[in-house]
UniProtKB/TrEMBL annotation, chains A, B:
Belongs to the NAPRTase family. This is Nicotinate phosphoribosyltransferase. CDD domains: NAPRTase_A (cd01570). GO terms for molecular function: metal ion binding; nicotinate phosphoribosyltransferase activity; transferase activity. It is an enzyme of class 6 (ligase). Pfam families: NAPRTase_C, NAPRTase_N. Its cofactor is Mn(2+); Mg(2+). Its EC number is 6.3.4.21. Transmembrane segments: none annotated.
Length: 563, 563
């Protein structure tokens, strides 16, 4: 009974991160429906709504739930301001409305609601509600659109990020670089936040870094290289050394190292025979190293990765070594990332071997960051063909979720004044599971979750070690007995309006959700997670709930007649 | 010379609509590059950047430019606050930075910039810059990410909306219903704004309605129907009449009309033979009509459109007529929209014919709104198969731009201290056109635009009636003489930082941009606009610019060597 036993903290959460998340961030019909409920006197009936999705995104078999903290901020601060009311009254649909309704609206908040939810960052599956909202029909209905808006994209990006993490492997550094291609400022900031939740290591987005404490990463763009013409661009060539000393002419050092590299060029692998590299690029790298000697990472593909970028990088990197600094590595933003990264690694390794540890120690293990339209498929292909990339910068595909840019979360009425409601559809997948439900995740002895099962709200919790029949909600033949070694209740009371509070014991911080995401994904059987043809995870209902669904279904569905 | 002759208004624009559009809404590398420029003393060099895209979205041959007003708000208010600076100083990359840099940053604004741009709402084409930013390298580079973020999605959605308008036809009402599936709160609000710009008639999103004055539309959801059990749900059945009278029992009237409909059911078209409709649905419709007697529009597909939704709608609609109100129509959110809308129209027409103008006048022309996963393809298919829909509610496909969720706008350095810069690429499409350029749209006598041509900045403007050779920028054989009847300069000075002002004569309002969008689209030749295999609109360069590009290209590109 851990959810009801949880203590409630009496505190107001801060407002949403986006100032656009007002009480008016709703579809107009939420207001017209609210008025109709108020007018016919049904507004205070106690309703229960399920927020759920019906299909995992990206042809996958799991979803990461995200957006809960933002939803609770919204709920905690939900109020129509004077300006909101004034706007509503000015709308054409308000012309015939009773003015007393707006007085009623002005008093409204979420103090009469209870919200139960799965945990942010947890792995979730179709049909098991992510959230259940209980309370007066009018207010529970009014918050439909903002909750969907705050959950849909958050969960989609977090899932997308987690999928990229799975395919890139735990060792890779994953950086979100998508702000410029995001769907609006908030699309970018939300993407950074939820990509981090889903397992990314950092972002390029400084605003997101500030708001959520996400590590920020970045070096320079092609335009930085293009903006340099030659060494004459560098006003000051002195470099402070880490030991307190001074290199009086770093550029001279870079030129000497460039010369010295020509002597070993024959020892370098394959067809790499450079003679003259692009001088403005060399000047740009030297300039960047003067600005960031302790974190030198160069974008090497402005002209030609192998003929110009890498030798120029090496010249500057060797000069930095002499000054007592260790370079970080290179970034490649175009071309055949498999081939170029393998070649780059071979050059770095050979240079260290040929020049020795004194001059080029650690070059073998320098970082190679790759960017340029990377997605799951590219990562999969790189894994197949081999590569030597240590970090990926992922933009458009990650933040716009190009493979599937929307998650279809819906918000369905399942009970009103204790009476269950079912929404029928020609499409069986779209039939809602009526009534309030508890959901449990059942685990095997080895710690693997094996099935999620929903029970009617008043059924006793499944017990560890006892067999329970788990049934497919719609297909009568699909059923199995499960004897769980461990039973986890999935829905926690996360908002109890009567105390204006959020539950103690529910850590809503981004770091906690990020950890939860990694842990729950790692607890899943590998075949649910694989890139190609993953196995569906089972979602089921108890025998009682099964019978209940099918009884209501038959009652509601008209018998067809063929004439 | 209209752009330079334009007067400049000295006023600060209001801040961006989204509070997340701060000076920190940048990729981290903008800051590290800024530092390196500042450190090597090149930060004050005068740079020119082009903001452009390379390929029209959605397999189309045109794009609508949007986001300019928001960019100018950003530029006008661009400043690092004390809190911004404090955050930057706390970042790991700042550890080795000279503190004087942050004092420099704290003083920075866009007063040293000039911005030239095409008009918001105008139709634009690949490679012709949407904006050119001129000014000190450091600050012109710093605003790259926010400008891209504010233009990319805005232009994508506006283009998507314009495409939906083209295929739906001018007579259809188009409503944006996408907030719940949008990529964040801002994704939703921006979508509403730019869908309206692109030719939509309204939105469901009240916050967007408030911010931008867009008409808001909406009725009720399935949950409203489900929330009703029967007539006992309706506390008050009296209805005030438009003439000041009172209907003492509207429900009684509805029941009578439902009975009376059974008498004419044999005269209704095809296989439509209803006997018993869903009573809770009838109660819900009556309840909604009591709340909105003057704007009754019912969602008729909760149970069965033809067997239950439409007869229930008719009962309530006939009762409203008796009370002196005219119903608006129905909404269908599932099923075969072609078939259902045609059947619905036939029923409405027959009912008016059978019951007469007194009881059912105007029913023939009631509105039929369709929603449910509508996109360009569905609209195309509805056109092919026939339908009787008057309004479309379009959500997910419109707001997430599901067919192509990102527009690839880029921001490229083209000149520094008067020296042109070219960015080469293996992919010819990605080669930038160097130097500052003017662009003109050339029109034929019949008013059709025929080609956009870019000239070097110091070339004289093409003259009406004089032949000009327009060349493909990269393919030497593609060239044509054009003798324009009318010449339009495409870039206006929209921001002159020296006076902190926006140009007078540039109407940046949403309504003006919306009108401009419709007008410029309508001026294009139809074959550029068609859904399948549209003809590309020509984008060209002058002879001088052509020679200039190819001279620089040869200078910069290394000669390959095959050994």
């Amino acid at each position: 009974m851990h959810s009801s036993a949880m203590k409630v903290k009496t505190r107001k959460l801060p407002p949403c991160h986006n100032s656009l998340a007002t009480a008016l961030l709703v579809d107009a019909y939420q207001i017209t429906m609210a008025y109709a409920y108020w007018k016919n006197g049904t507004h205070a009936r106690i309703a229960a709504f399920d927020l759920l999705f019906r299909k995992n995104p990206f042809n996958g078999e799991f979803t990461v739930f995200a957006g809960l903290e933002e939803c609770l901020r919204f709920i905690s601060n939900f109020r129509f301001t004077g300006a909101d009311i004034a706007f509503l009254r000015s709308e054409p649909f308000a012309r015939t409305m009773d003015p007393a309704f707006f007085e009623f609206l002005a008093q409204l908040d979420c103090s009469s609601l209870k919200v139960f939810a799965q945990m942010e960052g947890g792995v979730v599956f179709p049909r098991v509600p992510l959230m259940r909202i209980e309370g007066p029909l009018l207010v529970a209905q009014l918050i439909e659109t903002p909750l969907l808006t705050l959950v849909n994209y958050a969960s989609l990006v977090a899932t997308n990020a987690a999928r990229h993490r799975l395919i890139a492997g735990e060792g890779a550094t994953l950086l979100e670089f998508g702000l410029r291609r995001a769907q609006g400022a908030d699309g970018g900031v939300s993407a950074s936040r939820y990509a981090y939740l889903g397992g990314f290591d950092g972002t390029s987005n400084l605003e997101a870094g500030r708001q959520f404490g996400i590590p920020c990463k970045g070096t320079h763009a092609h335009s930085f290289v293009q903006a340099h013409i030659g060494f004459e661009d560098i006003a000051d060539s002195t470099l402070n050394l880490p030991d307190g000393g001074l290199c009086p002419d770093f550029i001279k050092l870079v030129k000497e190292q460039a010369e010295s590299l020509l002597e070993v060029v024959d020892m370098l692998p394959g067809s790499l025979r450079w003679a003259e590299t692009n001088h403005s690029e060399l000047a740009a790298f030297a300039s960047y190293a003067l600005a960031f000697p302790a974190s030198f990472l160069a974008l090497v593909d402005t002209y030609d990765v192998l003929k110009s970028g890498i030798p120029n990088f090496l010249a500057v990197a060797l000069a930095l070594r002499i000054c007592g600094y260790q370079p970080l590595g290179i970034r490649i933003d175009s071309g055949d990332l498999s081939y170029l990264s393998l070649q780059a690694r071979e050059i770095l390794t050979t240079v260290e071997a040929v020049l020795g540890a004194e001059r080029a120690g650690g070059f073998t293990n320098l970082s190679i960051t790759a960017s340029n339209d990377i997605n799951e498929e590219v990562l999969h292909s790189l894994n197949q063909h081999g590569h030597s990339i240590t970090a990926f910068g992922i933009g458009t595909h990650l933040v716009t979720c190009l493979r599937q840019p929307a998650l279809g979360c819906v918000y369905k009425l399942v009970e009103i004044d204790g009476a269950p409601r079912i929404k029928l559809s020609e499409d069986v997948q779209k039939i809602t599971i009526p009534g309030r439900k508890e959901a449990y995740r059942l685990y095997l002895k080895n710690g693997e979750p094996v099935v999620d099962v929903m029970l009617r709200i008043d059924e006793p919790q499944p017990r560890e070690g006892e067999r329970i029949l788990c049934r497919h909600p719609f297909i009568s033949s699909k059923r199995a007995y499960v004897q769980p070694a461990h039973v986890q209740r999935l829905h926690n009371l996360v908002w109890d309006g009567s105390t204006q509070g959020v539950c103690i014991g529910v850590d809503l911080s981004l770091m906690a959700s990020r950890l939860r995401c990694m842990q729950t994904i790692n607890s899943l059987r590998a075949d649910h997670l694989r890139y190609i043809n993953p196995t569906p995870y089972k979602v089921s209902v108890s025998e009682k709930l099964y019978d209940f669904i099918h009884k209501l279904w038959l009652e509601e569905a008209p018998v067809g007649e063929i004439v």
